[in-house]
Specification:
Blueprint lengths: L2 E3 L4 H20 L7 H22 L2 E3 L3 H9 L11 H14 L5 H27 L1 H6 L1
Antiparallel strand pairs: 1-2
C-alpha cells in the first residue's frame, strides 16, 4: 500500500462521488447477458472503488492502489442486507476479469448487481454526510 498525504479536497471528493453515482446508474441500466457480464462487474467494482477514493481524498490521502479505498469502505457502518466485506469478492472477480480473462457467470453478475443495489446507496449517503460534515474535516 502506497499512500501520499495531501491537502483534503472536498470538491474533488464530491466530484468523484457524483461520477461514481452516475456510472452506477448507467451500469445498473445495462441488460445482463454474457456480452455485458464483464463490463457490469468491472463497472460496479470501479464505482465502489471511487467511493473509497472520494473518502480518502476528503481526508487528504491519495491512494495508489485499490486496496486502501476498499478498506476505507469496509470501515463504514451502514445498515444493509449485505456486509461491506463482500466488496472484497467484487475486487477479486474484477481482478480475474482484467488480468486472467475470466468471464463471470450470470449468477456472479446478478450477485454483483444485488451488492450494488444493497450497499451502494447507503455507503454513498454515509460518505456524502461525512464529507459535508464539519466534524469530518476537523479530524482529518
Amino acid at each position: 500500500m502506497t499512500i501520499r498525504h495531501k491537502k483534503p479536497d472536498s470538491k474533488n471528493s464530491q466530484s468523484i462521488l457524483s461520477s461514481a453515482e452516475k456510472e452506477m446508474m448507467f451500469t445498473l441500466s445495462l441488460q445482463t447477458n454474457e456480452m455485458s457480464a464483464s463490463t457490469i462487474v468491472r463497472n460496479i467494482y470501479e464505482c465502489f472503488r471511487k467511493l473509497g477514493d472520494a473518502l480518502l481524498i476528503a481526508q487528504g490521502i491519495e491512494s495508489r492502489d485499490h486496496l486502501e479505498p476498499l478498506k476505507e469502505l469496509m470501515k463504514i457502518s451502514v445498515k444493509a442486507d449485505r456486509p461491506t466485506g463482500i466488496l472484497e469478492n467484487l475486487r477479486k472477480i474484477r481482478h480475474n476479469i482484467n488480468y486472467y480473462g475470466y468471464n463471470p457467470s450470470i449468477d456472479e453478475v446478478n450477485d454483483s448487481v444485488n451488492i450494488a443495489k444493497t450497499l451502494f446507496p447507503p455507503i454513498l449517503k454515509e460518505i456524502k454526510k461525512k464529507i459535508t460534515s464539519s466534524r469530518f474535516t476537523m479530524f482529518f
